[in-house]
Write a structure and sequence with these properties.
CATH superfamily of the largest domain: FAD/NAD(P)-binding domain
Number of domains: 3
InterPro entries: Amino_oxidase, Carotenoid/retinoid_OxRdtase, FAD/NAD-bd_sf
Largest sheet: 7 strands, mixed
Shape: globular
GO biological process, one term: carotenoid biosynthetic process
CATH topology of the largest domain: FAD/NAD(P)-binding domain
Structural class: alpha/beta
CATH class of the largest domain: Alpha Beta
Family: Belongs to the carotenoid/retinoid oxidoreductase family. CrtP subfamily.
Distance between the termini: 25 Å
Transmembrane segments: 12-33
Pathway: Carotenoid biosynthesis; staphyloxanthin biosynthesis; staphyloxanthin from farnesyl diphosphate: step 3/5
Length: 510
Amino acid sequence: MGRYTDYEREILSKIVVIGAGVGGLAVAARLAAQGHSVTLIEQAPVVGGKLGVEHVDGFVFDTGPSLLTLPQVLEDLFTAIGGPPMADDLPVRQLEIACRYTFPDGVVLDLPGDPREIPGALDSALGPGRGAQWSSFMERAERIWDATLTPFLQSPIDLRTMLRLSRRLRDLTTIAPWKSLRGLGTSYLSDPRLRMLLDRYATYTGSDPRRAPAALASVPYAEQAFGSWYIDGGLGRIASVLLSRAQALGVEVRLDTRVSEILTDATGVRGVQLSDGSVVDADFVVANADAQQVFNDLLTPDQPGARSAARRLRRTTRSLSGFVLLLALDNPPGDQPHHHVLFAEDYDDEFDAVFGRKGRARPVPRPTIYVSAPSDPAITPDDQTGAWFVLVNAPPHDPAEGVDWDAPGLREHYADQVLDLMAARGLDVSDRIRHRVIISPADLERRTLTPGGSIYGTSSNGALAAFLRPSNRSPVPGLYLVGGSSHPGGGLPLVMMSAKIVADMIGAAG
């Protein structure tokens, strides 16, 4: 379809979508394309949610995801909503080097974007036989991906899903729900650096690899099998393009507007009340907000469904958060790849600190450091500068029982510590910094209304974590959840999958 149709369509239902993150934008566009009347309400003055963008003196920074995986999921979204092809507005390019890894022993691995080249690169960097070990593990990961894609990632999570999975003995044996990601990896990978490489993928869901389920092996499989991609101008452009497409489909967008309550009656939802006291009526409400905020703050305490959902959430572990540095650099190192991970000397100590084991949660003294350094003239004022995004895992903001990231001087001291650690690991840019912006977990909480700044809502810690994550159909009739804190989880592809699940359910109900 090259153009939107302009004929009048019968309105099926009135729908309010709370939150204009990628999940909210995607579900709003899908529902409007189905013929529903959609109002999208966002508390911030801009769209994007955790897919944020920061402009600093001619530099453009993605403050959320900086890597696009499973681009076919984004393509499917644009196909479903119609209009010009995705490539017209969001051309994607595959990275030749998916990521550079610097290990504690000083060994450097450039992991190729082409999966066929990965075994050879592992043998060259880590020693003969490492490629075969990783390939053997990836074969198991592929079987896990195949077993979980349709019945789990692309479908609502409910009792029928659990029963269906439990009856398929072969799939259950493949997924091994009784094993952790690290436990599964240990049975295939003898080199501690390969196990460290695998552990990192647990952080994609804000989790601890020692407790995250073996099913998360599907994450490195998907990244390596389908490639690592980038959008020139930054991934934040996804949100702005989706906004334009949604508006072209007739979605009414209200920015800088806060929902104070989801209104219900004996039959279910009936709309939302805004902070100015006005009411927007709706047949369905879709919340692209943290599930904890939805059930604890946006629904009244006497709503039985909200009480039961809030109790369930209390049984989960919040995901990790992140401490971010945005570095505007003069004359950045010329050989820096798009993504670079500088591993911690003691990964277990990092996870203990972030999740509050062996004491209270605390900033990690020597964390793993993730650097995104896109080679993209669209995000810098000239070709002699760089816009670097630096991230370390961090405990959520929790002044009462964990870390108070607003404590005087903590942000600045920790930022200096991270830069010193980068230098010690061979990536010293301290004398090249023109501007430095710090985003702490407390800042993330304020920006996204996510409790503690927990990036993924709840973690995947524990064998039942996926089933404790809020389902897309809430216990309150007519209320649906979309986004990283609900099924199937966080990250751009899964958030867009959740949008499709919700749109399909409402389409069937309405």
